[in-house]
Write a structure and sequence with these properties.
The protein contains ten helices and nine strands. It is of the alpha/beta class and 293 residues long. The strands form two sheets. It has a seven-stranded parallel sheet, sandwiched between helices. It has a two-stranded parallel ribbon with strand order 5-8.
C-alpha cells in the first residue's frame, strides 16, 4: 500500500488563501502536489517556492475551474507525470456581498459556476482514475456559511449549501469504489478573501439595504481581518489524508463560530436567527420600512 507521504494531490485555487496554505502544507508533508491557479503559474511558483525547500514537490498549473477543458487538461497532465491522483482538495471559490433582492441572475450564476459547478467539474475529472485505483480522497472546502444563511451573503451561502448536498450524495455514491468524500467548513480566517469579495451589481445602485449592509459587512470584515491565517485548515487537510475513515464534515475556525454551528442543530430556528441578527447588528425594521401613504 502506498504511504501517505507518497500521495499525489491536486489542490484547486492554490495561489492564495486556504488553497495556498494547503498546497504548501501538503508539500511539506512529503506529498507530490499540483496546485491550480488562474494567474501565471511560473510567477506563483517562484513566489511560493520561497517558503519551501528544494526537495518539496509543488508544481502550479494554470487552470480556471469554470473551463471544463482546462480542468481535464490539468488532470491529464498530472496523470501523465505520476500515473495516479490520490487526493483532490477543492479550494477554488470567491465571495459575494449584497442583499438577496440585489443579487442578479448573473451574480448568482457566476458564484455557482465557480463555487459549485467548478468543484463538480474537478470531481468528474478525477473520479474515473480514483475508481480504477479503488482509492482516493476528495476534500471539498465549504464554509460555515454552508451551515447557516449569512445576511448579505445569501448567494454565497446558497453556493455552499448546494456544495454540502452535492458532497453528501457523492460520498455515498463513490463509497463502493473506495473513494472518500469529506467536507471542511472553515469559519473566518485572514486571507485575500476579504478584499476580493465582490459586491453584487444591483447593490451598487440600490440604497435600500446600503446602510445595513455596510454595518453587517463591517462585523464580517473585522472578524476576517482579525482572524488567524489559514494554516489550521491546511493542517486539518493533512490529518484527514492520514485518516482511514474520515468524518463527513469538519468545522474549523474560531471557538465562537464552531459553537454557532452546534447551536444551529439544537436551538429553535427563530432563536438561532435572533442570535445571528444580534451578532450582525441587524435591528428592527424601522429603517427599512417603506412609507405608506
Amino acid at each position: 500500500m502506498r504511504k501517505p507521504s507518497e500521495c499525489v494531490v491536486l489542490v484547486t485555487g492554490a495561489s492564495s488563501g486556504i488553497g495556498r496554505a494547503c498546497a504548501v502544507e501538503l508539500s511539506r508533508r512529503g506529498h507530490t502536489v499540483y496546485g491550480t491557479t488562474r494567474r501565471q503559474p511560473l510567477a506563483i511558483q517562484a513566489e511560493v517556492g520561497r517558503d519551501l525547500d528544494p526537495s518539496h514537490r509543488l508544481q502550479f498549473l494554470q487552470v480556471d475551474v469554470t473551463d471544463c477543458h482546462a480542468v481535464q487538461d490539468a488532470v491529464d497532465h498530472v496523470l501523465s507525470e505520476t500515473g495516479r491522483i490520490d487526493a483532490l482538495i477543492n479550494c477554488a471559490g470567491f465571495g459575494s456581498a449584497g442583499a438577496v433582492e440585489d443579487t442578479s441572475d448573473a451574480d448568482l450564476r457566476a458564484l455557482l459556476d465557480t463555487n459549485l459547478v467548478g468543484t463538480l467539474r474537478c470531481c468528474r475529472a478525477v473520479l474515473p482514475r480514483m475508481r480504477l485505483q479503488h482509492s482516493g480522497t476528495i476534500i471539498n472546502i465549504s464554509s460555515i456559511a454552508g451551515r447557516m444563511g449569512i445576511p448579505f451573503q445569501g448567494g454565497y451561502s446558497a453556493s455552499k449549501y448546494a456544495l454540502e448536498g452535492l458532497s453528501e450524495a457523492l460520498r455515498m455514491e463513490v463509497h463502493p469504489f473506495g473513494v472518500k468524500v469529506v467536507l471542511i467548513e472553515p469559519g473566518d480566517f485572514r486571507t485575500e478573501f476579504t478584499e476580493r469579495r465582490q459586491i453584487t451589481s444591483l447593490a451598487k445602485a440600490n440604497e435600500t439595504y446600503a446602510a445595513q449592509m455596510r454595518k453587517t459587512l463591517s462585523v464580517m470584515e473585522a472578524e476576517e481581518l482579525g482572524g488567524a491565517t489559514p494554516e489550521p485548515v491546511a493542517r486539518l487537510v493533512g490529518r484527514i489524508l492520514d485518516t482511514n475513515s474520515p468524518r463527513v464534515r469538519y468545522v474549523v475556525g474560531p471557538f465562537s463560530e464552531r459553537i454557532a454551528a452546534g447551536l444551529k442543530r439544537v436551538l429553535p430556528s427563530k432563536w438561532f436567527e435572533r442570535i445571528l441578527m444580534m451578532y450582525y447588528r441587524i435591528g428592527g425594521n424601522e429603517s427599512g420600512r417603506e412609507n405608506k401613504t
